[in-house]
Design brief:
The protein is of the alpha/beta class. Helices cover 42% and strands 15% of the residues. The protein contains eleven helices and eight strands. An eight-stranded parallel barrel has the order 1-2-3-4-5-6-7-8, surrounded by six helices. Phosphoenolpyruvate binds next to strand 8. The site of phosphoenolpyruvate has 14 residues, from strand 8.
Length: 252
C-alpha cells in the first residue's frame, strides 16, 4: 500500500513570526508519528525559518516553485539546487495559480520538473482542469495533456521521485471541493496513463494527491479513496488545528 501524504501550501501568506509559530505547532502536533507523511511549503524567504523548526521531526520541507536552471543570469528566480542546498526535500511545480495567474506553459513546467529532479529533489507536479473545461467535458483530454507534457523526458527511475497532485482549478480556494468519486475517477485514469507511459509497476507506486478546498470535514471521504494517496492543502494549512485534523484523516 502507498503511504499517505498531506502537504501544506502556504502560498503568499504568513510572516517570519507566524511561519515559525505555524511550523512549530505542526511539528508538535505530528510528534514522532510518521505514518502519514507531512510536508510544509512556506514562501521562499521563510524556508530557512521553517527548516529550523522542522529539524529532527518527521515533517518535511518543500518549496512552492523553482526555476528550470541550475544557476545564471535569471534575476529573481530560485534554483532547485539552491532549494536542495538549504534542506528542501521537494518542490511543487505547475500549481494552477502559476499556470493561470503567472502564465506558465506546459513547456516551462516540464523544464522545471526535470531540473528539480536533476537537483535531487522530489517533485509534486500539479495538474487540473478549469471550470469551463469541465463543463465542456474536456477534463480528461486536458489532464492527459498536462500529465504527458509535464512528465515528458522523465525516466521511470526518476519518476520514483514524482508525486502527482490533481487540483481542479474550480475547487482551489473556492470552498467547492471535487467529490471523492470525481477525484477518485481522475486519479484512476491518470494512474492508467502512467502505466502506459512508465509501466504498471512504477504506476502502482506513484502517489496521487488531491487538492482543492480540502477541509477537516471532507478529508476523510477524500483520503480513503483507493487512488487518493493524500492531499495538497492550501487555505486549511494556515491553521495548525485544521491541518493536523486533515493529517489525522489520512491515518491508516
Ligand atoms: C492549493 O493551494 O494547492 C489548494 C488546494 O488550495 P485550497 O486548499 O485553499 O483550495
Amino acid at each position: 500500500v502507498r503511504k499517505k501524504w498531506v502537504i501544506g501550501n502556504w502560498k503568499m501568506f504568513t510572516t517570519a513570526a507566524t511561519a515559525k509559530q505555524l511550523a512549530a505547532d505542526v511539528v508538535k502536533g505530528v510528534g514522532g508519528d510518521d505514518r502519514v507523511g507531512v510536508g510544509l511549503c512556506p514562501p521562499f524567504p521563510y524556508l530557512p525559518i521553517v527548516a529550523e523548526a522542522v529539524r529532527g521531526s518527521p515533517v518535511e520541507l518543500g518549496a512552492q516553485d523553482c526555476y528550470c536552471e541550475k544557476e545564471g543570469a535569471f534575476t529573481g528566480e530560485v534554483s532547485p539546487w539552491m532549494l536542495a542546498d538549504i534542506g528542501c526535500l521537494f518542490t511543487l511545480v505547475g500549481h494552477s495559480e502559476r499556470r493561470h495567474k503567472l502564465g506558465e506553459s506546459d513547456d516551462i513546467i516540464n523544464r522545471k520538473v526535470r531540473a528539480a529532479l536533476d537537483a535531487g529533489l522530489y517533485v509534486v507536479l500539479c495538474v487540473g482542469e478549469t471550470l469551463t473545461q469541465r463543463e465542456a467535458k474536456r477534463q480528461e483530454s486536458v489532464l492527459l495533456f498536462q500529465f504527458d507534457a509535464g512528465l515528458s523526458g522523465v525516466t521511470a527511475e526518476a519518476l520514483k521521485r514524482v508525486v502527482l497532485a490533481y487540483e481542479p482549478v474550480w475547487a482551489i480556494g473556492t470552498g467547492k471541493n471535487a467529490t471523492a468519486e470525481q477525484a477518485q475517477e481522475v486519479h484512476h485514469h491518470l494512474r492508467r496513463r502512467a502505466a502506459v507511459l512508465f509501466g504498471a509497476e512504477v504506476a502502482e507506486k506513484l502517489p496521487f494527491l488531491y487538492g482543492g478546498s480540502v477541509k477537516p470535514d471532507n478529508a476523510h471521504a477524500l483520503l480513503t479513496q483507493p487512488d487518493i494517496d493524500g492531499g495538497l492543502i492550501g487555505g486549511a494549512s494556515l491553521k495548525a488545528a485544521d491541518f493536523l485534523a486533515i493529517v489525522k484523516a489520512g491515518l491508516p
